[in-house]
Amino acid sequence: MHAEAGKGQFEVALKYVLCTLAADNLIYAREIIKSVARKHGLIATFLPKPDLNDIGSGSHVHLSLWKNDQNVFMGSNEYSHYGMSNVGEQFLAGVYHHLPSILAFTAPHPNSYDRIQPNTWSGAYLCWGKENREAPLRTACPPGVPLDMVSNFEIKSFDGCANPHLGLAAIVAAGIDGLRKGLKLPEPIESNPADYATKLKRLPQDLLESVESLAADKTLHELIGDKLITAVIAVRKAEIDHYSKNPGAFGDLIHRY
């Protein structure tokens, strides 16, 4: 845990663990932090953009792929493309391909898109890069990993309004599609994506755009299920309607999240 760039903002890193347990641990951590804050007369909020004039708060996710206690996302002497294995690249390519639809799960509130802006370390353009903190998808080479390899990837377009179980499920489903189809990644972006704004596709700039992407994404419908997708879209549209008609409801979000 350490101080971050925003006023009164902190970053808390939770140790990596099996995907479903990681989602549980995130909820436990948030509830503990909120409870301790209340005891001291403070409010702890995980709202993506509680202050429109300050930096936002994300809930960044780091993922790696494991088989038989071996990290199979990372490249090897036999095969390495940008530090990734063939399996790792295909999985990440699936996430890249479906990212606009995934945002309906991982950035599920109108306030989420106040955070996802250029030059705010949140990933506003559809791209990926090695250790590029402005890209929504970043492959990582932490201490102990050879410099020509990457051990995992990070998704920045994920925030505290998201149900972590559903968000991770959408990411895994997209990765499975990448494995099934043998998808490939485009060339990485190694500098600020905003410098390539005319060449890169902008990620959805509001929740409605994400919902429309999800509604049209037949693959995620197949992998996640029509009933759940229909319910998610209905809830998102209700959020859009509520907060467009009740601008004063913004203040309640700090307590809600």
TrEMBL record:
Residues 1-257 form the GS catalytic domain. Gene3D superfamilies: Glutamine synthetase/guanido kinase, catalytic domain. The keyword Manganese does not apply. Keywords: Ligase. InterPro entries: Gln_synth/guanido_kin_cat_dom, Gln_synth_cat_dom. This is GS catalytic domain-containing protein. GO terms for molecular function: glutamine synthetase activity. SMART domains: Gln-synt_C. It comes from the Eukaryota. Belongs to the glutamine synthetase family.
